[in-house]
Amino acid sequence: MLCLSMSFTAPEPFIEALIFASEKSISAEEIQQVLAELSEEQFSLKAIEELIEKIRQKYLDLNLAIELVQLNGGFQFLTRKEFYPVINQLQIQRSRKKLSQAALETLSIIAYKQPVTKLEIEQIRGVNCDYTVQKLLEKELISIAGKSETVGKPLLYATSGLFMDYFGINSTKDLPQLTDLVPESNVIGDQTE
Prior knowledge:
By secondary structure, the protein is an alpha+beta fold. Helix content is 48%, strand content 13%. The longest helix is centred in the first third of the chain and has 17 residues, at 45-61.
Protein backbone atom coordinates (compact mmCIF):
# COMPACT_ATOMS: atom_id res chain seq x y z
CA MET A 1 0.00 0.00 0.00
CA LEU A 2 1.35 3.42 -1.02
CA CYS A 3 1.80 5.68 1.97
CA LEU A 4 0.86 9.32 1.52
CA SER A 5 3.15 11.16 3.86
CA MET A 6 0.84 14.17 4.17
CA SER A 7 -2.39 12.21 4.31
CA PHE A 8 -2.50 11.81 8.06
CA THR A 9 -2.08 15.48 8.85
CA ALA A 10 -3.35 17.27 5.73
CA PRO A 11 -5.42 15.37 3.13
CA GLU A 12 -6.60 18.67 1.63
CA PRO A 13 -3.85 18.96 -1.06
CA PHE A 14 -4.58 15.42 -2.22
CA ILE A 15 -8.29 16.16 -2.53
CA GLU A 16 -7.45 19.39 -4.39
CA ALA A 17 -5.15 17.45 -6.75
CA LEU A 18 -7.84 14.83 -7.43
CA ILE A 19 -10.40 17.50 -8.31
CA PHE A 20 -7.89 19.37 -10.46
CA ALA A 21 -6.75 16.26 -12.36
CA SER A 22 -10.25 14.95 -13.01
CA GLU A 23 -11.42 15.71 -16.54
CA LYS A 24 -15.05 15.65 -15.38
CA SER A 25 -16.68 16.33 -12.05
CA ILE A 26 -15.56 13.98 -9.28
CA SER A 27 -17.84 13.03 -6.39
CA ALA A 28 -16.95 12.97 -2.70
CA GLU A 29 -17.49 9.20 -2.81
CA GLU A 30 -14.89 8.79 -5.57
CA ILE A 31 -12.44 10.91 -3.61
CA GLN A 32 -13.10 8.76 -0.55
CA GLN A 33 -12.43 5.57 -2.53
CA VAL A 34 -9.16 6.88 -3.97
CA LEU A 35 -7.91 8.01 -0.57
CA ALA A 36 -8.93 4.69 0.98
CA GLU A 37 -6.84 2.83 -1.63
CA LEU A 38 -3.75 4.93 -0.96
CA SER A 39 -3.88 5.43 2.78
CA GLU A 40 -4.54 3.36 5.84
CA GLU A 41 -6.53 6.21 7.34
CA GLN A 42 -10.25 6.26 6.50
CA PHE A 43 -12.02 9.55 5.81
CA SER A 44 -15.74 9.99 6.26
CA LEU A 45 -17.81 11.60 3.51
CA LYS A 46 -18.62 14.43 5.89
CA ALA A 47 -14.91 15.09 6.49
CA ILE A 48 -14.21 15.05 2.74
CA GLU A 49 -17.11 17.41 2.05
CA GLU A 50 -15.83 19.78 4.75
CA LEU A 51 -12.38 19.75 3.17
CA ILE A 52 -13.88 20.38 -0.27
CA GLU A 53 -15.75 23.38 1.17
CA LYS A 54 -12.49 24.62 2.69
CA ILE A 55 -10.81 24.33 -0.74
CA ARG A 56 -13.74 26.15 -2.37
CA GLN A 57 -13.44 28.99 0.13
CA LYS A 58 -9.69 29.21 -0.41
CA TYR A 59 -10.20 29.79 -4.13
CA LEU A 60 -12.90 32.39 -3.45
CA ASP A 61 -10.70 34.24 -0.96
CA LEU A 62 -7.72 34.33 -3.31
CA ASN A 63 -9.83 35.93 -6.05
CA LEU A 64 -8.40 33.67 -8.76
CA ALA A 65 -9.62 33.13 -12.31
CA ILE A 66 -10.77 29.61 -11.41
CA GLU A 67 -13.26 28.41 -8.86
CA LEU A 68 -14.37 25.09 -7.39
CA VAL A 69 -17.97 24.38 -8.31
CA GLN A 70 -20.37 21.58 -7.56
CA LEU A 71 -21.50 20.10 -10.82
CA ASN A 72 -23.49 16.99 -11.69
CA GLY A 73 -23.18 15.47 -8.22
CA GLY A 74 -19.43 16.11 -8.07
CA PHE A 75 -16.84 18.85 -7.94
CA GLN A 76 -14.75 20.45 -10.67
CA PHE A 77 -12.47 23.42 -11.16
CA LEU A 78 -13.87 25.81 -13.77
CA THR A 79 -13.01 29.26 -15.04
CA ARG A 80 -15.10 31.99 -13.43
CA LYS A 81 -17.98 33.31 -15.54
CA GLU A 82 -16.57 36.83 -15.76
CA PHE A 83 -13.65 35.47 -17.78
CA TYR A 84 -15.92 34.03 -20.49
CA PRO A 85 -15.05 36.72 -23.11
CA VAL A 86 -11.33 35.98 -22.80
CA ILE A 87 -11.81 32.21 -22.98
CA ASN A 88 -14.23 32.60 -25.89
CA GLN A 89 -11.64 34.64 -27.81
CA LEU A 90 -9.05 31.93 -27.19
CA GLN A 91 -11.43 29.30 -28.55
CA ILE A 92 -12.08 31.42 -31.65
CA GLN A 93 -8.35 31.80 -32.27
CA ARG A 94 -7.73 28.10 -31.78
CA SER A 95 -10.56 27.12 -34.09
CA ARG A 96 -9.13 29.46 -36.75
CA LYS A 97 -5.88 27.59 -36.56
CA LYS A 98 -7.65 24.30 -37.04
CA LEU A 99 -9.10 25.10 -40.47
CA SER A 100 -7.36 23.00 -43.09
CA GLN A 101 -6.49 24.26 -46.55
CA ALA A 102 -9.40 22.24 -47.95
CA ALA A 103 -11.77 23.81 -45.41
CA LEU A 104 -10.57 27.32 -46.29
CA GLU A 105 -10.99 26.65 -50.01
CA THR A 106 -14.47 25.24 -49.52
CA LEU A 107 -15.43 28.10 -47.19
CA SER A 108 -14.19 30.63 -49.77
CA ILE A 109 -16.28 29.07 -52.50
CA ILE A 110 -19.36 29.11 -50.29
CA ALA A 111 -18.73 32.72 -49.21
CA TYR A 112 -18.39 34.00 -52.78
CA LYS A 113 -20.98 31.80 -54.52
CA GLN A 114 -23.66 31.39 -51.82
CA PRO A 115 -26.12 29.86 -51.80
CA VAL A 116 -24.31 26.97 -53.43
CA THR A 117 -24.79 23.21 -53.67
CA LYS A 118 -22.16 20.65 -52.74
CA LEU A 119 -21.96 19.56 -56.38
CA GLU A 120 -21.09 23.11 -57.46
CA ILE A 121 -18.37 23.28 -54.77
CA GLU A 122 -16.96 19.94 -55.95
CA GLN A 123 -16.96 21.11 -59.58
CA ILE A 124 -14.94 24.20 -58.65
CA ARG A 125 -12.51 22.37 -56.34
CA GLY A 126 -12.29 19.24 -58.46
CA VAL A 127 -12.49 16.89 -55.46
CA ASN A 128 -15.12 15.36 -53.19
CA CYS A 129 -15.93 17.71 -50.31
CA ASP A 130 -18.36 15.68 -48.15
CA TYR A 131 -16.01 15.61 -45.16
CA THR A 132 -15.05 19.29 -45.44
CA VAL A 133 -18.65 20.48 -45.70
CA GLN A 134 -19.57 18.31 -42.69
CA LYS A 135 -16.70 19.81 -40.63
CA LEU A 136 -17.71 23.36 -41.59
CA LEU A 137 -21.29 22.58 -40.54
CA GLU A 138 -20.03 21.19 -37.21
CA LYS A 139 -17.94 24.34 -36.63
CA GLU A 140 -21.09 26.33 -37.52
CA LEU A 141 -19.19 28.40 -40.09
CA ILE A 142 -21.76 27.45 -42.74
CA SER A 143 -25.42 26.56 -42.57
CA ILE A 144 -28.03 24.93 -44.76
CA ALA A 145 -29.83 27.72 -46.60
CA GLY A 146 -32.55 25.61 -48.18
CA LYS A 147 -32.93 23.32 -51.17
CA SER A 148 -32.18 23.99 -54.80
CA GLU A 149 -34.94 23.80 -57.40
CA THR A 150 -32.74 21.63 -59.63
CA VAL A 151 -33.18 17.89 -60.13
CA GLY A 152 -32.85 16.00 -56.85
CA LYS A 153 -33.33 19.17 -54.81
CA PRO A 154 -29.79 19.26 -53.34
CA LEU A 155 -29.10 21.26 -50.20
CA LEU A 156 -27.89 24.83 -50.54
CA TYR A 157 -25.08 26.06 -48.28
CA ALA A 158 -24.35 29.59 -47.13
CA THR A 159 -22.07 31.22 -44.58
CA SER A 160 -23.38 31.67 -41.03
CA GLY A 161 -23.30 34.53 -38.54
CA LEU A 162 -20.37 32.81 -36.84
CA PHE A 163 -18.49 33.02 -40.16
CA MET A 164 -18.83 36.81 -39.98
CA ASP A 165 -17.55 36.86 -36.38
CA TYR A 166 -14.77 34.44 -37.22
CA PHE A 167 -13.37 36.62 -40.00
CA GLY A 168 -14.29 39.95 -38.38
CA ILE A 169 -16.62 41.21 -41.09
CA ASN A 170 -20.14 42.66 -41.01
CA SER A 171 -21.42 41.13 -44.24
CA THR A 172 -20.21 39.24 -47.28
CA LYS A 173 -19.90 42.63 -49.02
CA ASP A 174 -16.84 43.18 -46.79
CA LEU A 175 -15.06 40.21 -48.39
CA PRO A 176 -12.13 41.18 -50.62
CA GLN A 177 -13.14 41.52 -54.25
CA LEU A 178 -11.59 38.90 -56.49
CA THR A 179 -9.97 41.67 -58.55
CA ASP A 180 -8.18 42.81 -55.37
CA LEU A 181 -6.72 39.34 -54.91
CA VAL A 182 -5.49 38.67 -58.44
CA PRO A 183 -2.12 40.31 -59.10
CA GLU A 184 -1.53 42.06 -62.37
CA SER A 185 0.24 39.73 -64.73
CA ASN A 186 1.81 40.00 -68.14
CA VAL A 187 3.14 43.48 -67.47
CA ILE A 188 5.92 44.41 -69.86
CA GLY A 189 8.40 47.22 -69.41
CA ASP A 190 8.94 49.84 -66.74
CA GLN A 191 5.70 50.91 -65.05
CA THR A 192 7.02 54.41 -64.18
CA GLU A 193 6.69 55.68 -67.77
